[in-house]
Amino acid sequence: MVVMECPEKAAPRALGGASATRGLGGSAIVSEKEHLAGRRRRAPRPSQGTRTALYLRVSTADQKPDLQDDGLRGYAARVGLDVVQDYCDIAVSGRREGRPQLNALMAAARNREIDCVLVWKFDRFARSTRHLLAALEEFDHLGVRFVSVQDQIDTSSPMGRAMFTIIGAMAELESSLISERVTAGMRAAQARGRHLGRPATPPRLVSAIEALATSTDLSIRQIHKEIGGRASRSIVGAITKRARAAPPSAL
């Protein structure tokens, strides 16, 4: 007698019929519910872009940005960021607004050419807390990530944004304290009778400038040339204007 075996039962279907199974070769099979509704699951969002720009700054021409450059490129290599451009301002103070390379960096961010800005320390980038916050707000609007390597702060996290604000405020406070100490030192020197600033213009030179201003129609530049540049053009201009504005003396 031949015994007929019963065929194996199909694997139980998940509750709700919303799960997808795997077919031969590991290919995904759309669930019955999704197929009937005519919908497909959304693909996962792509990870954050890796097009990275480096920003470096040194305050004097004698300083070299090699330390910043090596550190930034090493960090980018470790975390998988692709450096597409680097911007370096040389012999430019952090308090100046006119930084050509920083302006170029901001333009690249506005043109959607980069996804991340990498700096060595945040004070290499921002000149004040206001500037820092304004830049971070613009980067956030543009979807640009901002990372400070030495400060170990990344604006992609809420904690990173909060820490940037706090550290920026502390740096501005330190700068203000330094300015106050310098001002106090200058006042103390003046109280002791020390002359601060440029040396006074010799009276003989002042008389020569006044004579040229009242007896000729020479311009300030020409008078400055006549005295051989022994005084700055601004001083020559001030003396000339004062002399020509004074009423003529009575004979």
Q: How would you summarize the topology of this molecule?
A:
Elements (H helix, E strand, L loop, with lengths): L20 E2 L5 E2 L2 H6 L13 E8 L7 H14 L2 E9 L9 H11 L5 E4 L9 H14 L2 E4 L4 E2 L3 H34 L11 H13 L4 H7 L6 H13 L6
Parallel strand pairs: 3-4, 3-5, 5-6
Antiparallel strand pairs: 1-2, 6-7
Helix pairs in contact: 4-5, 6-8, 7-8
Keywords:
8 helices, alpha/beta, Rossmann fold
Structure description:
The chain is of the alpha/beta class and 251 residues long. Among the domains are: 51-170, Rossmann fold (3-Layer(aba) Sandwich); 203-245. It has 8 helices and 7 strands; from the N terminus they run E-E-H-E-H-E-H-E-H-E-E-H-H-H-H. The chain has helices at residues 32-37, 66-79, 100-110, 129-142, 158-191, 203-215, 220-226, 233-245; strands at residues 21-22, 28-29, 51-58, 82-90, 116-119, 145-148, 153-154. Strands 4-3-5-6-7 form a 5-stranded mixed beta sheet, sandwiched between helices. Helix 2 links the parallel strand 3 and strand 4. The longest helix is centred in the C-terminal third of the chain and has 34 residues, at 158-191. The radius of gyration is 35 Å and the shape is elongated. 18% of the residues are buried. Mean pLDDT is 78; it is low at 6-38 and 40-47.
